[in-house]
Amino acid sequence: MSEALRITRVDITPVAFKDPALLNAVGVHEPYALRAVIEVTTDQGITGLGETYADEGHLRRLRTAADAITGMDVHELGPMHRRIAQALGGDSGSDGHGLTGMITTSSTVDRVFSPFEVACLDIRGRAAGRPVCDLLGGAVRDRVPFSAYLFYKWAAHPGHEPDDWGAALTPEDIVAQARRMVREYGFTAIKLKGGVMPPEQEVEAVLALREAFPATPLRLDPNAAWTVETSLKVARDLEGVLEYLEDPTPGQEGMARVAREAAMPLATNMCVVAFDELPSAVRADAVQVVLSDHHYWGGLHRSKLLAGICDTFGLGLSMHSNSHLGISLAAMTHLAAATENLTYACDTHWPWKDPAEDVIVSGALGFHDGSVAVPRGPGLGVELDRDALARLHEQYLRCGLRNRDDTGYMRRLDPTYEKKTPRW
Ligand SMILES: O=C([O-])C(=O)C[C@H](O)[C@@H](O)C(=O)[O-]
Ligand SMILES: [Mg+2]
Q: Which residues does UniProt call coiled coil (predicted)?
C-alpha cells in the first residue's frame, strides 16, 4: 500500500488584485478583488495549492478548518469534509454581495472545504505524477471552452486611472467590448451581465450582439433583477436569440413560473447553489441548466457529483465564475475537462484581470480559440510565484478592503442608490 501524505502545515494568504468598475445588479465592483491562496504542505514536503474567497468571516473559517485538518492524510477527503463540518460547528456565512443565493450551514462547509480539497488533489497529482483531471476520472476533452463575459462598466473607478477597456454603457459599447474580447481570446460564446440598465436597453444590447455575431451562442444574466412579468417580456423579446437566460427573477417559484412560458432554457447560480436545493428545483422544473462552481459546491469531486445529478435529471450544466486568479482557472479547467456533460462554455472573469497580476508563474495557462488547454503537468500544473504572492498580499494590506461590498461602494459614490430585488 502506498504511504499516507500527512498535512503538516497550511498557509492562508489573502491577496488583492485590481478590478475594473464592473456594474451588476447589486452595485459596482470595488477597485480590488480579494482572494485567498491556500498552500497545504505534507510530511513528504509536497505542497498543493487552492484558491478561494477572502472575506473576513471566510478567512476566519478557513483558519479553523486548517487547524482541524492538520495531521490528516490528503487521501481522506470524505473524513476531511466531516472534520471541517464538526470544526465549524454550524457556523454559517454569507456571500456578502447576494449574487450567489442563500448560504446555509451545509453550503458554508462546502465553501470552506473546497480550496483544501483542491490543494489535496494537487498534492496527490504531484505525488503520482498525474494531472488533477486524471484523478477525477480522466479528461474527456483536452481543451476547455470559456465564454466572453461582458459587463456594463465605467471607464474608471472615481479618483483612479482609467483602465484600457473604456466605458461600456450603451449597446454599441457592449458590441465593441465583445469584439475586443473575441479578437483577443477567440471566445465562441458570449454572456452579458445584465440587471444594470432597464431591461429594454439590455434587450437592445443583446440584439446588437446577435447582429454583430450571428452564429455565436448568447446569454443574458440579470441576477434576479426582474419580476416574473418582466422576465416573460424579455423572454418573448429574445426568443430564438439566447442560448439560455440566467436568473431572470428571484427564487425557484418565480423561476418555475418563467420557465413554464419562456422558450429558452433558464440557468441559475442563484436559486440552486447547494445540494439541498436540487430536489425542489427538479420537482418544479424551475431551471434547466445549473451553473456549477467548485468554490461553493464543495470542491472538484462534489462538483462531479452535481454533474451526475444534473445528468440523471436531464438538467444542463454550465460553470459560474467570480473574479479569480490562475490557481482557480487551473482547477476549473481540470474539472471541466473531466466532466462529460459540462457542454456549455464556462464563465470566466479572466479578461478583466490585469495580465501582470497573478500568483502563478506565467505561461502555464493560455487562451486560444476561446479555450484553455488542460495542463498536462502533475497536479494542477501551475506553480506559485512567491514574489507575486508577496506583492499581491502587500496590496491586500494596503488597499484596506476586507469584504466584497459592491452595494456599499456604489452607495458611497451615489448615496441615492438602492439595492432592490427585483428592481424592474
Ligand atoms: O451570477 C453570476 O454569474 C455571478 O454572480 C458572477 C459574478 O459574481 C458577477 O456577477 C460579478 O462579479 O459581478
Ligand atoms: Mg449568474
A: none
